[in-house]
């Protein structure tokens, strides 16, 4: 198929109406493309009788995320695979396998950069990564993690990994970094729970010589681990501000299955937002579209996946669309909130013991 | 037998079990079960835990007497000695049935309950303790209930001292425990993962009330245990002339009932959809599918293959197929098959078929609604006989 030239689009440039027209058209083309090129996708659409004639965005079929773990889904021939992404997953769980050709890999990088530029500007900033150097990851540590770190790293310069091989804070180098860069904007990147553990719970203020006033924190990867200690997004920000004077904090929501078109928090209303390249739909327990403001399963849509049929995916995350109130972002974006992953279910009976 | 270990939690603490057997259906044991039934009949608990209610009903005096009557013969039968019961991790009350089978056949029992804490188990053990402390001191040395996490040392030590070991569990659990030695004369009985199905003849189902009654019974066989018990049907065989309208009505009525009575976990929504997509991609004999209220999924097959026993669902995910007669079972039944529940066919019809068909599997044939009724005849074994020793006097 003819690819969209993503260079021509700014992530928040189209009004909601324009966007929905553009997006619907493009996602229909993608659906056709994957129908023609992925035999598994074709089977499912044929069987469920959802081949074409879509009148509305919510009629576009969606694949459950599980299928990317169970099957090698691709819309290109195997020899075109340029890179394979794996999702994180705790031991024992199967991981998603996402197959990219070079075009798809490029468009991911391009779109990610467009979305981030909007927040951090186009200049590359000094970057503090709240993790170990991926070189020091053990095999059991997840490849998705290092992929995310490497993916984001190219938006910064003079990188410092906050943690040493033993996962302890490297105060010596942190102080050198802060001394050099803390009086101007600098970028901080990390996973939600790891950032919280290190920059809030563990860090010893006495040992650092500067504050984080000019830092811009981007964090993502889920709240699951810190949900246990019950920190809301609001408290997360407040705590980091009180501790480090860190005030620019952005959470993002993204899946390895749709790398690139991440959803990022609006700086004014703090809700996650869609861009020109992405959309979300919330589905209820009947898998029908839920009313705005009602919790349900998050279906994510992205215009990026061309080499694998991942442009419309039903996740196992629970979220809700925010319709109340207005914000600058609501002109361009669907605003939403993620409540976290579905808990593993308990099943009665004697199978699966 | 002496049981000691710090990693062991006693729910019923009797460290010295006797290996002196009792005669089968000993009066003291029967009375104890009758009294236990009364003690378990607690309004509040029964409301929250229908499985405790079912247990209380099962071990009521009348049922025990009935079992006794059925088993009585002139044979001299005694318990084997001490039975080690390893019970499944996700059916809270299963351990009690295993224990009761051991008691009725005249044995002393050490029961390992699931390592996960279930309120039902704590409640039941509390009631047993009350009885053992007062009225039934004599049975003290015959019941010990323990909880421990996988610990081969403990399993070894108990296995070395028992006369029989019963293992309820998945294939993995069973294979792991089997590696642990028993005494040369000790016996082992395993209740592994099984597969069940039902057959429905539609000729009498035109009547809506009759159909509703059947649906209710079917619900009890399936949704009460999330369709995940070994004896819950996974596959529905429609017997005789195909009547699409009635089949459809059955599913519609079922979905209505399910929507009123059943609240599945949220993940079931995703899991059923996952399974549907996976089936569409890889199941060769899938013909069509239908979803009722997003609660009941049905997958119609266009043939019955050799690996039918892999077609399993949970939370209301069924496979269906039309058969002309029971002969077609021969193509697909293997040793995995346990329960065939039926409707619309006579007991004679079933008996006649099973007397002449040499099937590798299926050891329970019960009317729909009784699939989960556990009994001393289980998995093809007569526990009255297997768990006891006969003395042959000539």
What does this structure look like?
The complex is a heterodimer of chains A (353) and B (394). With 353 residues, chain A is an alpha/beta fold. In chain A, helix 1 crosses helix 2. By secondary structure, chain B is α/β, with parallel strands linked by helices. The longest helix of chain B has 18 residues. Chains A and B meet through helix 2, strand 1, helix 3 and strand 13 of A and helix 11 of B.
Q: Order of helices and strands of chain B, N to C?
A: EHHHHEEHEHEHEHEEHEHHEEEEHEEEHE
Structural class call of chain B reads alpha/beta
What is the arithmetic mean of pLDDT of chain A?
Answer: 88
What's the alpha carbon Rg of chain A, rounded to whole Å? 21 Å
Q: Quote the distance from N terminus to C terminus of chain A.
A: 47 Å
Summarize the entry for a quick read.
The complex is a heterodimer of chains A (353) and B (394). With 353 residues, chain A is α/β, with parallel strands linked by helices. Chain A contains 9 helices and 14 strands.
Topology:
The complex is a heterodimer of chains A (353) and B (394).
Chain A: H1 16-37, H2 39-48, E1 63-64, H3 66-70, E2 83-86, E3 97-100, H4 102-120, E4 125-129, H5 143-153, E5 156-161, H6 171-181, E6 186-191, H7 192-202, E7 215-220, H8 224-227, H9 233-244, E8 248-253, E9 263-265, E10 272-273, E11 278-283, E12 296-302, E13 312-321, E14 335-341
Parallel strand pairs in A: 1-13, 4-5, 4-6, 6-7, 7-8
Antiparallel strand pairs in A: 2-3, 8-9, 9-10, 10-14, 11-12, 12-13, 13-14
Chain B: E1 9-12, H1 27-40, H2 43-48, H3 50-58, H4 61-71, E2 76-79, E3 82-86, H5 94-104, E4 108-113, H6 119-133, E5 143-147, H7 152-161, E6 164-168, H8 171-178, E7 187-191, E8 195-201, H9 208-222, E9 233-239, H10 244-261, H11 266-282, E10 286-292, E11 296-301, E12 317-323, E13 337-343, H12 347-355, E14 364-367, E15 377-378, E16 381-382, H13 383-386, E17 388-391
Parallel strand pairs in B: 3-4, 3-6, 4-5, 6-7, 8-9, 8-13, 9-12, 11-12, 13-14
Antiparallel strand pairs in B: 1-5, 2-17, 10-11, 15-16
Helix pairs in contact in B: 1-3, 1-4, 1-6, 9-10
């Amino acid at each position: 198929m003819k690819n969209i030239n993503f260079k021509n689009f700014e992530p928040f440039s189209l009004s909601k109406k324009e966007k929905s027209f553009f997006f619907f058209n493009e996602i229909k083309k993608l659906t056709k493309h994957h129908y023609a090129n992925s035999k598994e996708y074709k089977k499912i659409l044929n069987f469920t009788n959802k081949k074409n004639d879509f009148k509305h965005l919510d009629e576009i079929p969606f694949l459950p995320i599980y299928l990317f773990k169970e099957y090698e889904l691709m819309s290109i021939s195997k020899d075109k695979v340029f890179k394979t992404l794996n999702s994180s997953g705790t031991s024992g769980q199967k991981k998603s396998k996402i197959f990219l050709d070079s075009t798809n890999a490029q468009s991911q990088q391009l779109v990610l950069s467009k979305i981030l530029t909007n927040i951090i500007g186009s200049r590359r900033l000094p970057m503090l990564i709240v993790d170990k150097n991926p070189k020091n990851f053990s095999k059991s540590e997840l490849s998705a993690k290092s992929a995310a770190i490497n993916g984001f790293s190219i938006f910064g310069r003079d990188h410092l990994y906050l943690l040493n091989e033993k996962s302890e804070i490297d105060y010596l180098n942190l102080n050198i970094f802060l001394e050099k860069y803390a009086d101007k904007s600098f970028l901080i990147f990390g996973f939600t729970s790891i950032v919280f553990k290190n920059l809030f719970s563990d860090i010893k203020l006495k040992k650092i010589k500067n504050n984080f006033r000019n830092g811009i924190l981007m964090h993502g990867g889920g709240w699951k681990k810190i949900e246990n200690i019950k920190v809301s997004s609001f408290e997360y920000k407040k705590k980091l501000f009180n501790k480090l004077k860190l005030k620019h904090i952005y959470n993002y929501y993204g899946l390895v299955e749709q790398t690139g078109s991440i959803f990022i928090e609006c700086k004014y209303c703090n809700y996650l937002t869609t861009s020109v390249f992405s959309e979300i739909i919330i589905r209820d327990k009947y898998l029908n579209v839920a009313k705005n403001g009602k919790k349900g399963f998050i279906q994510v849509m992205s215009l990026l996946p061309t080499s694998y049929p991942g442009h419309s995916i039903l996740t196992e995350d629970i979220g809700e669309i925010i319709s109340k109130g207005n914000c600058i972002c609501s002109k361009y974006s669907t605003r939403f909130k993620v409540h976290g992953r579905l808990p593993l279910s308990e099943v009665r009976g004697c199978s699966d013991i | 037998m002496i049981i000691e270990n710090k990693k062991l939690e006693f729910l019923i603490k009797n460290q010295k079990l006797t290996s002196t057997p009792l005669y089968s259906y000993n009066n003291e044991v029967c009375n104890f079960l009758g009294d236990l039934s009364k003690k378990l009949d607690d309004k509040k608990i029964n409301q929250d835990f229908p499985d405790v209610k079912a247990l209380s009903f099962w071990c009521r005096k009348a049922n025990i007497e009935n079992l006794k009557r059925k088993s009585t013969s002139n044979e001299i039968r005694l318990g084997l000695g001490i039975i080690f019961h390893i019970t499944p991790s996700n059916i809270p009350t299963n351990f009690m049935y295993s224990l009761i089978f051991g008691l009725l056949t005249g044995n002393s029992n050490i029961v390992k309950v699931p390592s996960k804490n279930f309120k039902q188990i704590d409640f039941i053990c509390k009631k047993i303790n009350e009885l053992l402390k007062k009225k039934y001191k004599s049975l003290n040395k015959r019941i010990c209930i323990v909880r421990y996490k996988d610990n081969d040392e403990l399993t070894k030590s108990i296995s070395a001292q028992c006369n029989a070991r019963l293992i309820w569990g998945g294939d993995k659990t069973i294979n792991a425990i089997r590696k642990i030695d028993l005494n040369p004369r000790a016996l082992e009985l395993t209740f592994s993962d099984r597969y069940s199905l039902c057959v429905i003849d539609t000729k009498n189902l035109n009547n809506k009330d009759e159909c509703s009654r059947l649906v209710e019974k079917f619900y009890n066989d399936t949704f009460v245990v999330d369709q995940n018990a070994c004896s819950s049907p996974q596959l529905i065989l429609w017997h005789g002339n195909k009547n699409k309208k009635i089949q459809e009505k059955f599913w519609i009525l079922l979905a209505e009932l399910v929507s009123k009575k059943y609240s599945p976990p949220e993940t079931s929504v995703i899991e059923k959809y996952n399974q549907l997509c996976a089936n569409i991609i890889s199941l060769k004999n899938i013909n069509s599918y239908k979803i009722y209220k997003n609660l009941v999924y049905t997958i119609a097959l266009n043939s019955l293959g050799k690996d039918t026993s892999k077609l399993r669902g949970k939370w209301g995910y069924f496979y269906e197929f039309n058969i002309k007669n029971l002969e077609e079972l021969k193509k697909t039944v293997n040793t995995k098959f346990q329960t065939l529940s039926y409707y619309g066919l006579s007991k004679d019809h079933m008996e006649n078929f099973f007397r002449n068909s040499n099937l590798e599997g299926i050891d329970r044939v019960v009317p729909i609604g009784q699939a989960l009724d556990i009994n001393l005849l289980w998995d093809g074994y007569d526990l009255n006989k297997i768990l006891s020793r006969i003395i042959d006097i000539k």
